[in-house]
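One chain shown below:
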Amino acid sequence: MGAKVVAAGDPGLKFLRFSRYCETFVPCQVYGADPDEFAARVTELAGEHRVDIIMPGDSDSLFLLAEVKDRLTTPVFPIPTLPQLHRLNDKHAFHDTCVQAGVPVPASIFVADKHGLNPDELGERFGYPLIVKPTTWGGSDGLLLAKSADDIRRQIIDNDDYQYRPLVAQEFLPGQDVGLNVFAVEGEAILAAPQMRDGETITHLDNEQVVSLGKQYVKAAGLTGLAHLDARLGPDGHVSFLECNPRIWASVCHSYWCGENYVAAGIRHALGQPVSEPTPIANRSVTAPAHLLFDLARGRRKPWSLDRCNRRALAQGCADPVLLFRRYFDRPTRRTVPTSK
């Protein structure tokens, strides 16, 4: 798009200044920030750098922007309202919305905290293994694949360090993890493409069932913005949806390298410009640039064997050290996702 990026965030993100796509990095408290102070700081930076659009880059900035976006004069990338965001981010609410919309989900029960778990009853209801995880945390924080009732007692109930709440316990579904990448506006999915990960490689799937069911959820939830829907594809082809991550996802670059630019679509919509028709990217695969380099160095791949998508990923990765080595810059944190009050 030819855009210039001004990155603003907590000091731990200052490595972004090394990106060739980043014009500058400026300090701005995000995690734990006061909403009024955050709004004032963003307004100041937008004016100082003549910003055309403001976009969240993670969960912390997303929740803050959802709270203060009505106070900002600069256009904001399409995002949900704060109440919508709390609901989208909650696995209990996700389950209820899916059930109401006729979207398949695993059999589940929800409890206020770990003391509401009865391992023996869970075994009778779901069998083992089964999944236990917090309803409002992201990633794999607090997630347990319990292989027995003793696992739940030892690793959750009797573990003083396990303080996640509330929780969901659900049946374990055999099969493969898949996801649906979505950009939507008021429940209409503008872009929607399913994908599957195999190590460092993302393959975009030709699976109309995942797309159709995902769009049913998007419509029922009234989703606006970017989201990645987690799902499970069973050996028999049956699809069950697990949760919604209503934010930009880690493999969004893979979608871009395969030909679909979700970020550009959101920016164009926010600026009142027409959004391009979806690009068919089914059956296209791409591997992370750093892994491509390792494969080439070890002789596992030859340069002339790379297709257009992987050549594009490799070229962009080599041109930007942050993109190529971002995993070494990233500093994992354990933060709770804000819950509604």
Observations:
- The domain at 107-171 is CATH 3.30.1490.20 (Dna Ligase; domain 1).
